[in-house]
Amino acid sequence: MIQTIDVTKIFNRGAANEFASVRGVTLGVTAGEALIIKGPSGSGKTSLLSLMGCMSRPTSGRIRINDPDLAVKLGAELGASLEIATLPERFLTLIRRQMFGFVFQQFNLVRGISALENVMLPMYPTGEHRSAIRKRAEELIAEFGVAHRATVRVELLSGGEQQRIAIARALVNRPKVIIADEPTAHLDTGLSREFLEIAAALKTSGTTLIIASHDPLVCQAPFVDRVEEIRDGLLVRPGSAG
Amino acid sequence: MTCWLNRQLNILDYTITSLLRRWWKNLSLIFIYSVLVFVIGSVMFFTRAMQREAKLILADAPDLVIQRLVAGRHDPIPLARAEKIRSIRGVSAVSPRLWGYYFDRINGANYTLQGADDRGLLPGDIDIGAGIARSRKIEAGDIFSLTDSNAIPQVFQVRKLFDAASDLLTVDLMIMPTEDFQSFFDFPADRATDFAVSVRNPREIATVAGKIVELFPDSRPIMKDEILRTYASIFDWRGGMMIVMVAMAVLAFVIFAWDRASGLSAAERHEIGILKSIGWDTGDVLSLKFWEGAVISLTAFLAGILAAYAHIFLMPAPFFSHALKGWAVLYPSFRLTPYVDFSQVAVLFILTVLPYLAATIVPSWLAASVDPDAAMRS
Ligand SMILES: Nc1ncnc2c1ncn2[C@@H]1O[C@H](COP(=O)(O)OP(=O)(O)OP(=O)(O)O)[C@@H](O)[C@H]1O
Ligand SMILES: [Mg+2]
User: Fold this and answer.
1) Which residues surround ligand 2, an ion (CB under 5 A)?
2) Which residue range is the domain that position B162 belongs to?
3) 3-state helix, strand, coil in chain B (%, to 5)
4) Model pTM?
5) Chain A residue at shortest CA distance from B284
6) Among the three residues B141, B168, B192, which one is the final residue of a domain in this structure?
7) Domain containing B96 — which CATH number?
8) ipTM of the prediction
9) Distance between CA B150 and CA B245 in Å, rounded?
10) Same domain, B291 and B241
11) Which of A193, A202, A135, A145 is nearest to A175 (CA)?
């Protein structure tokens, strides 16, 4: 469903502090798969995830997305794969909104507004009616057991609660792919296990999972199909299933 | 269509939430902004309304006023001169005028008192201006007493009040029959305060004035042009516009400076990155910033302009009372007739709201057009 072909990401190209965080990575993920990308800090996991999630464009190489619904939406031929490196920016936004839900390393919730509003945010540009958006967000928040904290400003929530809100926000547009960056980095073992339960449930419901983590708890979770390792921006082959 | 509308409504909704988060900063911003609009709006309304009043006065002003000077001071002019002036070529009419100032001890105000027979006033009748009626709390038909030059109180019956087409013109004016005027002030019957001279051809006014001075070297001619120029120098449209322009430049500068100083903070940049990463378009982010700027600048503009209107037309322009007091005729408290030049309001709107909108949108646009992951890392 998502395929990167010899993808490279170079920051500050041409400058003295030029840095290649991803180098020639060829990596695919199929629909419904649960893929773990592991590697030490600074190895380029976040950079790779943001490339796969259409958050940034590769310096070189190609990234293809193959999804029938998306193809229809963007008016492409059915079955054709979209080459995202060359798509205009507004299509990338549309793809991000339609296809991906992100759970960021630092959660990246918008401070100063309520948890509920944070979950509603990704739905605003869909043009749905506000009441429908609210209903959807409330359902999700209830599903994750944080309904009683819905009106609290997000920065006042605990780490675990923040993560649930972040997951709820990632799910609100019913994405096909969830991208989670170090989801357990800020959680204790108990909360990590809770996250893994949520992830397993998502996987069961058919959601594709791409998770960056070096947490053994995550890498060895039963729902994981494949673990790929990245070091200094290079994929370490062969990857082995956990 | 409904989709687009919903999208904008949702974004507007978020704008309000977002503004309320930093309500203290935004409120002080609106306050400063509206104070500036208020100041500029006040100057604008004031000069414009004054110009209009001045124009109304000038419409009635005679081509030429002839006064007599004795030892350099204004002195009653002998009526006998009227005939001689009328016989000058080009003069179409000479009408002697009787007027003077009356100090009202009760209100501590100066009124203009005029004697005239062409209004059909009977002896003992008086017409008064709205300002006097207001301050003395009297209406048409009431008895009105004034103290004459021998300190003897005289009573008059108020026949009618001048309707306030122009307050400035009639606010402090009283008119009584000539004979009453003469006896009230002990004014010599063979004199007038001055002559109003009509000249057939406006281009000959200066020549006629010259001839009158030749005939009566102690006379002082005052030409309509001169009055016009005097008014113009005070309330000149361009002069007023200059003040407004300068003030606007100051406003724009202050707002820009404020905005630069507070800038697009790292937090705001980060927030834009988050919004983009969760599926907001650059256009959506710009809508957000547009609404943000629009809410602030429209609120401030409306508050400022309404306050300016109230200040100039509903209160007696407290901040401008200095300028008013300098004009002796205006001494009693009076209100400018409300007069708003909408094209001027539009100019003020364009010059204040648009730069502000640009100042809020442009930096956000720059921040929103980079890849979201870059925006989030910075
Ligand atoms: N915008 C940028 N400009 C310059 N260098 C960058 C930028 N973004 C990332 N990098 C560099 O790229 C490298 C990989 O970063 P990345 O965040 O992808 O690593 P990571 O594997 O996610 O690390 P961690 O486990 O600490 O999150 C790092 O050395 C980082 O400093
Ligand atoms: Mg990372």
Assistant:
1) A 46
2) 77-192
3) 60, 20, 25
4) 0.74
5) A125
6) B192
7) 2.40.40.20
8) 0.90
9) 53
10) yes
11) A202
